[in-house]
Amino acid sequence: MDAILIFAGLFSAVVTTFIIEGYGNLMPDPNATTVALLQQISQQLAGNAVQNATLALGLFGPASSALRVNAFWILSLCLALTCALAATLVQQWARHYMQAVQRRPAPHSQARMRVYLFDGMKKFKMSAVVEGIPTLLHASVFLFFAGLVDFLYQINLRIAVVALSIVAACGGLYVLITILPILHRQSPFRTPLS
Q: What parts of the sequence cross the membrane (predicted)?
């Protein structure tokens, strides 16, 4: 869990820097308002303005690509932070388990407590929770990649195609590693979805 916690924290920091970069595309450009006002003043001074001319600023609406990119990145950040929280909770639960067992001085009392708590972990599917944390983190990484490719597509098509090629190759490898244990039981490669 420590490795997941560290990765989730570092990954969240990286995603946050990209969100800060992409966040500006969701708001109107303040320079556009200044330019429009200066144009209107210039036209009025030149005598070209019609009386009661209104400022030619349309309602701002962010581009659909900006909405998609920010949605991908914000979802990615939320999932990464959820993984960090879940990892700390699992560590806390493990400490509680160990403390509850070790508090009992007699070996038979420790054994009963261990069986009791272990049955509770099985009943409440603790292993599914623990195995779900990497799955969420993987989903977070893929959402980030989707946002990155979409972001780069708006900037430069060639760079976006290169990034998409790398992401597609990694995604294909991930799918192969996921399917391989189903096809070959001896395969040491697994993902949380295997």
A: 71-94, 128-153, 159-183
Task: Give me Rg for the CA atoms of the chain.
Answer: 27
Distance between alpha carbon 165 and the CA centroid of its chain, in Å? 20
Per-residue pLDDT of 9-40, as tens digits, reads 999 999 999 999 998 888 877 777 777 778 88
Of 57, 52, 49, 54, the closest CA to residue 31 belongs to 57
CA dist 164 and 167 (Å) reads: 5
Cβ 182 vs Cβ 194: under 8 Å: yes
pTM: 0.80
How many Å apart are CA 80 and CA 90, to the nearest integer? Answer: 15
Helix axes 2-23, 64-102, angle to 10 degrees: 160
CA distance 49 to 43: 5
- C-alpha pair distances (Å), 66 with each of 18, 28, 150: 12, 12, 9
Tell me the three state secondary structure of residue 106.
Answer: coil
Domain extent listing, the chain: 2-27+62-183
* DSSP 8-state assignment for residue 24: G
Cα angle vertex 33, ends 32, 36, to 5°? 85
